[in-house]
Design brief:
8-stranded mixed β-sheet; single chain; about 550 residues; two-stranded antiparallel ribbon; 18 helices
Length: about 550
């Protein structure tokens, strides 16, 4: 039990406690950084050195070292928090004690600074003075001992936290193994906001984070609010696993096709389908299904190869895999540069026909825009995100004429942009621009309808319409930060204006956007013009770079 006295409470000074708390806080942060380096530097040891006694010893030592370094963080952080809390709590109790003591002395009481006992003056017993002194005595006797008791309780609690978390030669420091994070806890994050998910992730030790990344990469990789570098680790794991599964399945399909074709050529249909009414028709039907599956598998593997090639290209800026799925048409979110550390972030949303098998072209556009923005502003960093995170329409007619793809995509894009804010590091927020091409602009229109859309500017390129008729209807972004361009010979101009299909053309004056220049394109090839905005010498490409880097007066 604490033996704090009233004098101790009145003499309390918080500055040394705050200073010590800062020291422990810096230690915790330093340990966290080092633990992450140790984990990332040793986790692949078992793969590159898998056999032998020396390998087993090295792997075991690395695991122990990761646990020890990682688990130092929590005790150090608890020490910092406890010391900081103690300082604020004791200052509040000191102020209460000062007020009560001052009131007692004003009423004529003598307060013992060691015991806290208050003694009434002799005059309190004389006629006429009982009421005033009895009220003061009641206040002193009721509240002053309570304040001292609270201070002693606080002192005991802080002492206990220190004794539990401080290192000792016998127990060591941080050698305990924390429990792993169960799947249900990870799955529960999907119902939380990106900011809440980010706070949960930060509460885990580096070793716990590593365990989650290793055991549940398919969950972590798609979570907005998880830092980009960690999502990249998770998604690369999923990418490699899916590549191996698809390769294996493709090999099985090709082997089966080869066997069936040999049977077909030999006319031995009943060997495969002995119970079928028409064995040949049954065999040919299976061949058609296998050919269709082979085409899908080959397409997805082509997309996976494009992503993997870009991620491992040493001649280009570092890329991060922020999202990946092979379900349905697939999904892929790839950033050139780290959005969490960049001064500017440009999110590029592709349009109709986008699927996993086609992602190579979208990633190339991201690389082109990253190169342009680096040239446009040499003093600041810009990360460009290729965001194929939604179910894009498969065809122009009838799919691209409906709103459902944009409604679903807009919700996901909104959350993604909020996640970029939650995970960004730096003294000031990044300047975030969202650019949509073709139907991708319609997706942005749905995302930007809400007031909470996290973008400083939106850009519509070759847009069929964004399902509003004026820039002011996009309440998630300032009207003067709505930009648009459509080439003179872009085939998209054949889409009816105003309330037909997707609303008013954003590049028309009555929409209210800031229209920037693009090359007119080819009158004899309007379809090619629709994709020409990223051609090397197209003025639109440079204007997009200027908008993304905030150099608005230079935009033409």
């Amino acid at each position: 039990m604490s033996d704090l006295t009233l004098r101790d409470v009145l003499d309390f000074r918080p500055d040394p406690w705050h200073a010590t708390a800062q020291v422990w806080g810096r230690l915790a942060q330093g340990v966290d950084d080092v633990a992450e380096q140790v984990i990332r530097g040793t986790r692949d040891l078992v793969h590159v050195w898998p056999d032998g006694r020396a390998s087993a010893a090295a792997v075991g030592k690395a695991e122990a070292l990761r646990a020890e370094v990682s688990n130092v963080y929590n005790p150090a952080k608890r020490m910092a928090d406890a010391l900081e809390h103690h300082a604020y709590a004791m200052v509040a109790l000191r102020r209460q004690a000062e007020e009560i003591v001052a009131s007692a002395r004003q009423a004529g009481y003598h307060v013992d600074m060691v015991t806290g006992v208050a003694t009434a003056p002799p005059s309190a017993d004389t006629a006429g003075g009982l009421d005033r002194f009895s009220r003061a005595r009641e206040s002193v006797l009721r509240y002053l001992p309570t304040v001292v008791d609270y201070a002693r309780t606080q002192d005991d609690a802080t002492a206990n936290t220190i004794s539990v978390n401080v290192p000792s030669p016998q127990a060591g420091f941080g050698t305990g193994q924390l429990d792993g994070v169960p799947r249900e806890v990870v799955e529960a994050q999907s119902a939380r906001s990106p900011a809440e998910t980010n706070a949960w992730w930060a509460s885990l030790t580096p070793l716990q984070q590593e365990q989650v990344l290793r055991r549940f990469p398919e969950l972590v990789g798609g979570m907005d609010g998880i830092p980009v570098s960690d999502r990249d680790v998770a998604n690369r794991s999923v990418l490699e696993r899916q590549s191996a599964l698809f390769q294996q399945r493709l090999s099985t399909v090709e082997d089966r096709e080869g066997y069936l074709w040999s049977i077909l050529r030999q006319g031995r249909f009943s060997d495969v389908y002995p119970d079928a009414e028409d064995p040949r028709t049954a065999l040919e039907g299976e061949l058609r299904k296998l050919a269709s599956e082979r085409a899908v598998l080959s397409g997805k593997l082509r997309g996976i190869d494009a992503i993997s090639t870009r991620l491992h290209d040493p001649d280009l800026p570092e890329a991060y895999l922020i999202g990946f799925s092979s379900d349905g048409d697939g999904r892929a979110i790839v950033s050139v540069g780290d959005p969490d550390t960049a001064d500017n972030v440009l999110t590029y949303v592709p349009g109709t026909g986008e699927k996993l098998s086609h992602v190579g072209g979208g990633i190339e556009r991201a690389d082109d825009m990253a190169e342009d923005t680096a040239r446009a502003d040499k003093d600041k960093t810009t990360s460009v995100v290729y965001w194929y995170g939604y179910d894009a329409p498969d065809t122009i007619f009838p799919d691209a004429g409906v709103d459902s793809y944009a409604e679903g995509g807009g919700r996901v894009l909104d959350t993604f942009q909020t996640g970029l804010r939650a995970t960004h590091n730096g003294d000031s927020p990044s300047h975030n621009t969202v650019l949509g091409h073709s139907y991708g602009s319609t997706v942005i229109g749905h995302a930007a309808r809400g007031p909470g859309f996290d973008a400083d500017a939106v850009v519509f390129v070759g847009s069929p319409g964004v399902d509003v008729n004026h820039a002011s209807d996009l309440t998630g972004v300032r009207p003067d930060q709505v930009w648009a361009t459509t080439a003179e010979h872009d085939i998209i101009r054949w889409i009816p204006d105003w309330d037909v299909v997707h609303g008013n053309d954003p590049s028309e004056p009555d929409f209210g956007a800031r229209v920037f220049a693009s090359d007119p394109g080819e009158p004899d090839d309007e379809a090619a013009t629709h994709s020409a905005y990223w051609d090397q010498d197209n003025i639109a490409r440079w204007n997009m770079a200027l908008i993304a880097t905030g150099q608005l007066p230079k935009v033409q």
